Amino acid sequence: MTNTASFFRKHWKGYAFLIPIFLVLGTFKYIPFFNAVKMSFYNWNGANVKEFIGFDNFVRLFSDDTLHVALKNIGMFTLSGVVIQLTLPLIAAVLVFHVTSAKLQNALKVWFVIPLVIPSIVIFLTWQWIYAGEYGVLNQFLELVGLESWTHAWLGESKTAIWSVIFVNFPWIGGINFLLYLAGLMSISSELFEVSKLDGMNPWQRFLRLELPLVRSQIKLVMVLTIIGQIQSFENVLVLTNGGPGDTTLTPALYLYTTGFSYNEMGYSSAIGLSLFIILLLLTFINNKFIKNTEKID
Fold first, then answer.
1. Where are the beta strands (DSSP E) in 34-143?
2. Stated pTM of the model
3. Which CATH number covers residue 190?
4. 240, 276, 235, 248: which is closest to 72 by C-alpha?
5. What is the CA angle 132-136-137, rounded to 5?
6. Residue 44 — φ and ψ, nearest 5°?
7. CA quadruple 166, 167, 171, 175: dihedral sign
8. Is 200 a member of any domain?
9. Which sequence ranges form a coiled-coil region, renumbered to this chain (predicted)?
10. Residue 220 belongs to what domain range?
11. Beta bridge partners of 50
12. What is the pairing mode between strands 42-44 and 50-52?
């Protein structure tokens, strides 16, 4: 304790810079979170109605058919997102990592990082333009190549809407996940690659036996980030379909948003938010429990 106290007395100026950060976090993150936990036990409209109802909001969750549909939809979004983010960005990172030309490799890195600086709303509006009805880019292209029978109201038909939303951001490579995989590959000792050459490994064997096991920590992190991002996301669905047609693409986060801000059921929306938080905690725990880090590989 004495050593700790003397350490803080010596370096108090540095830690003083953290105070504004904690104030901002407390104001915009922690206080609203704990307030939402409290309000989930109330019938609350966000203003003048505030009645304690205990666990009634949580009981309502189990009989809410709309929420059940939203959970099914987010299951599809999450599963597809995990499969996509654990494959294509990793393959792209491996290919870029093994480019022998330094100039070409750097150019490819910049090319795949550019999507990080583009606002997501711009990307969603672009895809909305691609999927637009008769005059959308996709339908126009299909007509141009003689595939008129393939044209659809991509975001307006229940059979195609959810798959159209999943397809957004194709080919799903650019962004932070690509950088995480690339950083993991760059941290592998060059001596190991020399050994793989001496052992006569072909590129596929090198990927399976060397690269894949040694980026397991990055895979674990990408899986956690993808699950959290998918379950929390609602901007893409809000812009593209607003949850429609019907409830075909509705997500729990969008349902939380509309319940709270369109119908003024802030207490119930707080209960939905707390339930999503618990689901995310459980999924993160399972991921950390069953997926090993790179350092744990024997």
1. 42-44, 50-52
2. 0.85
3. 1.10.3720.10
4. 248
5. 135
6. -135, 130
7. negative
8. yes
9. none
10. 59-296
11. 44
12. antiparallel
